[in-house]
Amino acid sequence: MLSPDRLGYKDRGKMKWQGLMLSDHNAALKQMKEDNKKQYGVEKEQMTTEEVSEVLYKAYILKKPVAIQANVLRDGHYYPDVKCIVKGYTGENIYLQLKDGQMKKVSIYLIRHVEYMDSAEWYVKRKHKKKPTF
After folding, report:
1. Measured distance CA(134)–CA(68) in Å, rounded
2. For the chain, what is the domain count?
3. 41-93 residue pLDDT tens
4. Is residue 20 pLDDT above 70, yes or no?
5. Are residues 36 and 53 both part of a single domain?
6. Is the distance from CB of 114 to CB of 94 less than 8 angstroms?
7. Do 71 and 92 belong together in one domain?
8. Do 113 and 51 touch, CB atoms closer than 8 A?
9. Cβ atoms of residues 83 and 98 within 8 Å
10. What domain of life is recorded for the organism (predicted)?
11. What's the CATH code of the domain at 83?
């Protein structure tokens, strides 16, 4: 079977498109790096179980939102903080309500660090996009 390449035809379009593919590839790699940075959290100070318990208990009593860093690594990095409100506790389990309304049960021994959040950040409503008017 004969093809243009076998007949000696050199398509310069192949060469031109390689430059565009390289810049698109670089942009995609840059976006992937930024997405990975968002997936990982900064390593925070390891708190004792007593310190974690005290902060969670006060947050429960005062109904204050907290940011919790799990003591779990993924690819050598910690997950980003979980923002939540403490809804209750039984023994070593803590019941948390996430910002989207989900309820989660977490063992206190899986918590690396916990800190109070700014209440205004927790209660800020999402801004709705305005629909275009014609």
Report:
1. 45
2. 2
3. 677 888 999 999 999 999 999 999 999 998 888 778 888 888 999 999 888 89
4. no
5. no
6. no
7. yes
8. no
9. yes
10. Bacteria
11. 2.30.30.520
Kindly tell me the burial class for residue 102, based on how many C-beta atoms sit within 10 Å of its own C-beta (0-12, 13-18, 19 or more): exposed
Q: Model confidence over 117-130: pLDDT tens digits?
A: 888 887 776 555 55
For 58, phi then psi, to 5°, come to -65, -40
The boundaries of the domain holding residue 29 are 12-40
pTM summary value: 0.61
Cα separation values, 115 from 17, 33, 34, 91, Å = 51, 28, 25, 21
Same domain, 35 and 56: no
> How far is residue 15 CA from its own chain's centroid?
40
For residue 69, tell me if it sits in a domain: yes
The confidence score (pLDDT) of residue 99 equals 86
Question: Does 34 reside within a domain?
Answer: yes
